[in-house]
Amino acid sequence: xxxxxxxxxxxxxxxxxxxxxxxxxxxxxxxxxxxxxxxxxxxxxxxxxxxxxxxxxxxxxxxxxxxxxxxxxxxxxxxxxxxxxxxxxxxxxxxxxxxxxxxxxxxxxxxxxxxxxxxxxxxxxxxxxxxxxxxxxxxxxxxxxxxxxxxxxxxxxxxxxxxxxxxxxxxxxxxxxxxxxxxxxxxxxxxxxxxxxxxxxxxxxxxxxxxxxxxxxxxxxxxxxxxxxxxxxxxxxxxxxxxxxxxxxxxxxxxxxxxxxxxxxxxxxxxxxxxxxxxxxxxxxxxxxxxxxxxxxxxxxxxxxxxxxxxxxxxxxxxxxxxxxxxxxxxxxxxxxxxxxxxxxxxxxxxxxxxxxxxxxxxxxxxxxxxxxx
Length: 374
Known about the structure:
Elements: E1 20-25, E2 28-33, E3 41-43, E4 48-51, E5 60-67, E6 70-77, H1 81-102, H2 110-117, E7 123-124, H3 127-142, H4 152-155, H5 168-175, E8 183-186, E9 191-194, H6 207-221, E10 227-231, E11 234-238, E12 246-251, E13 259-265, E14 269-274, E15 279-282, E16 285-288, E17 302-309, H7 312-325, H8 327-335, E18 341-346, E19 351-353, E20 369-370
Antiparallel strand pairs: 1-2, 3-4, 4-12, 5-6, 6-10, 7-9, 8-9, 10-11, 11-14, 12-13, 14-17, 15-16, 17-18, 18-19, 19-20
Helix pairs in contact: 1-6, 6-7, 7-8
């Protein structure tokens, strides 16, 4: 949960991002200058931006590496540098293991094996894979199919680096394969079976969150009390940062060097899904990697969706879900989930935020307030 920092924003007003906006946290002013490079800002290359205090103690250990197609960051407090290096390396080893298990780009991965064989016969899988498939289906059920790992039945036809998109005929030929109900799980045999041909799954909307949670578990087992593990747009915070919250910045979806909003968090997870990481623009239309299960095309109702939860597996999956649902339905879902909050920036550049981010005296107001256009 959010520990001491939930409902601690004293004022939330969002003027146009050409200028700046300000709110107070626990009586102290937190000022963001948006639209120009931030001071004291560390930009991550995917969805989230983490902001740190200027005076970082020598005991804070930090290491980064590129795994799972994104930048992995591990940062924590440890007096023993040798111990810190050993603990951090354990986290990176775990990240590489999950990548080898769940990458759709590795032909030898367990996920690739499922995609090759599950439409022909039941495939026995590891308990870890089975559990993640179960959770994916639960979120699909919760969201009425907005989250659907079978999106890859069409999604694999896109190549954003090569600026390739499927034809209308290709989409129509593959669209019926997108349906999480085609995934049949058997607890007794711990196996998965696809009920029709052409079904493919991709865990890109949940696997990095799972990896981050495993990384935090490793830090806990190392005796670490305060730290952070981040995989692109998915981060989880252990404790706080020297008796202060971590300042987590949500990147401006249309200005790479700017921050849209900063949130003080402790003991929580935060994930952002956005249309600005893997994409290309053709004839004025943005084609990006978050695919609508209903249309097989990129979702157009939002620029980004950020979800705060107690664990990164949940925040990762729900940020994709909320992005697909759009501002209105996405915020309605969030308001019905205890312990979950969200910030959505819609396709008009307006910011929506859940009631848990409002001050207590305004919690009764309608959730999903919007800012002026960014």
